[in-house]
Amino acid sequence: MNQPLICMTLTGKTLEEDLKLVKKYEKYIDMVELRVDHLNEDEQLSARRFPAMIYQPCILTIRRDIDGGQFTGGDFARTNLFARALAFANPDKSKNFAFVDFEEDYHIPSIQDAAMAFGVRIIRSCHSMKEPILNIRERCDIMRKTGYEIPKIAFMPHSLSDVLNLLKEGESMTQYEHILCAMGAEGFPSRLLASRTNSFLTYVSPEEVLENTKAIGHIDPVTINEMYHFKSINQDTSLYGIAGWPLLKTSSPEIHNKGYEAKKLNAVYIPYRSQLISDTLSFCEGIGVKGLSVTIPHKESVMYYIHEQSPEVAQIGACNTIVRKNNKWLGYNTDAPGFRRALEEFLGPVKIKHKKVAVIGAGGAAKAIVYVLKQMGARVCIFNRTVETAAQLAEKYGFNYCQLDPHCMAKLDEYSTLIVQTTSVGMNSEGPSSAENDPIYFYDFRGNELLFDIVYEPSTTPVMKRAALAGCRVCNGYKMLEYQAYEQFKLFTGLNYEEKK
Question: What residue stretches are annotated with the Shikimate dehydrogenase substrate binding N-terminal domain (predicted)?
Answer without folding.
Answer: 243-322
